[in-house]
Amino acid sequence: xxxxxxxxxxxxxxxxxxxxxxxxxxxxxxxxxxxxxxxxxxxxxxxxxxxxxxxxxxxxxxxxxxxxxxxxxxxxxxxxxxxxxxxxxxxxxxxxxxxxxxxxxxxxxxxxxxxxxxxxxxxxxxxxxxxxxxxxxxxxxxxxxxxxxxxxxxxxxxxxxxxxxxxxxxxxxxxxxxxxxxxxxxxxxxxxxxxxxxxxxxxxxxxxxxxxxxxxxxxxxxxxxxxxxxxxxxxxxxxxxxxxxxxxxxxxxxxxxxxxxxxxxxxxxxxxxxxxxxxxxxxxxxxxxxxxxxxxxxxxxxxxxxxxxxxxxxxxxxxxxxxxxxxxxxxxxxxxxxxxxxxxxxxxxxxxxxxxxxxxxxxxxxxxxxxxxxxxxxxxxxxxxxxxxxxxxxxxxxxxxxxxxxxxxxxxxxxxxxxxxxxxxxxxxxxxxxxxxxxxxxxxxxxxxxxxxxxxxxxxxxxxxxx
Length: 467
Ligand SMILES: Cc1cc2nc3c(=O)[nH]c(=O)nc-3n(C[C@H](O)[C@H](O)[C@H](O)COP(=O)(O)OP(=O)(O)OC[C@H]3O[C@@H](n4cnc5c(N)ncnc54)[C@H](O)[C@@H]3O)c2cc1C
Prior knowledge:
Blueprint: E1 22-27, E2 34-40, E3 57-60, E4 76-79, E5 86-90, E6 95-99, H1 104-111, E7 116-117, H2 129-134, H3 142-145, E8 152-159, E9 164-167, H4 173-179, E10 187-195, E11 197-198, E12 203-211, H5 214-224, E13 230-235, E14 247-254, E15 277-278, H6 290-303, E16 307-313, H7 314-318, E17 324-325, E18 336-344, H8 348-361, E19 368-373, E20 387-395, H9 401-414, E21 418-419, H10 429-435, H11 439-449, H12 458-463
Parallel strand pairs: 2-4, 3-4, 15-17
Antiparallel strand pairs: 1-2, 5-6, 6-10, 7-11, 8-9, 8-10, 12-14, 12-16, 13-14, 13-19, 18-20, 18-21, 19-20
The structure holds flavin-adenine dinucleotide.
The site of flavin-adenine dinucleotide (FAD) has 33 residues, from strand 3, helix 2 and strand 10.
């Protein structure tokens, strides 16, 4: 595997012991759609096998994509979480090679004591390195550091033609850019080498500011670009009139030793374990209605300081939702849709109209984040581009949902923006084609690395990326 394009490992029989799997119904983090697949659980890289299953094969990480990106109805799904661990780490340079099934939480626990931190983290530590690269994830620092592919120096890919490629921005660059953001459809990522970020402490110095309306919120986010490596805003989409688009803006930087209180300076890199509560799988559908969510939004807004600076822990700042295991169950079995889009700088009007539209239709949404993005990566299907992004969690069952989201998609596409594939479960094929013009080039590379079309996902089939 380590020696590059040398190792043919697909087999065509389902009688091989390593191919034994169980048929299981799978879902994404949004809990729908669901589809059944044969699951394999390899424990080592050698056990990862791509065969000629009639309904195709797909790698899956921790299932934190929201829609149908990690589903493969009637086919095979390779659960990569057993293929985990740090393969190599140089504490002097911060270069780390990680097996694809390792979670970002495990990676942080391993490298933070040495003064290193992942260069990009999403809103949860419960994603695998393979899933992070396949979605080319962004963090609160995209305006400074770009997406994860900017920091991956090389990855090992088991391709559909049975070969193993070691690809990076400097070698087999076409395969690399088709795979970073390629949603698992070019092959199975076996490992990735990532350049970590040096930090002096495990704390973050955070500035929190409450904002009165949308203009105020956007102005403060923009002003924070120069001052903060990390920034994000929570938006109250039930605010109306003078409070339309009010919210809370947070900006943060890794705390230096000088930022720490005297008693923390001796142990600046400690990373304590957090207690979790778990949401039971017995909550009814439709729990989150407008009056309850409005009350909660009011509480959330008032609880934030008008303006304050303080120190936060890594989980508290980067992964606040991880404190509640399986919080997606709050939406009941019907689940929810996360809609995240980006519009280029200059198309702020689309953002404004979307916020107004949500407020007018009285949609019961609490989890709403707005961020600013820097330049796009080279990934053909990568999501971020320089501009503004808004992510909204909407309960399934809200009557206007399909029409509302199609309407927003059209405006976003007209403005040159796009919807994030790893969150999507419903975008129309024509919208996708308009939003991702580099998909044609991606298909050519994909046909090269997977000529018989072994890799397949429900998302890929829905959007016409695979048959
Ligand atoms: C609470 C929460 C907050 C989030 N915040 C952010 C955020 O701020 N920014 C952001 O960018 N994303 C965010 N996400 C989305 C998440 O980062 C991505 O969906 C990520 O891909 C999930 O990783 P996973 O291991 O769970 O992958 P899965 O959901 O299991 O799979 C996602 C995709 O990756 C592919 N894949 C997985 N493993 C491999 C592999 N080894 N080889 C090839 N392909 C593979 C799958 O086929 C699938 O297409 C968030 C998700 C949640 C639940």
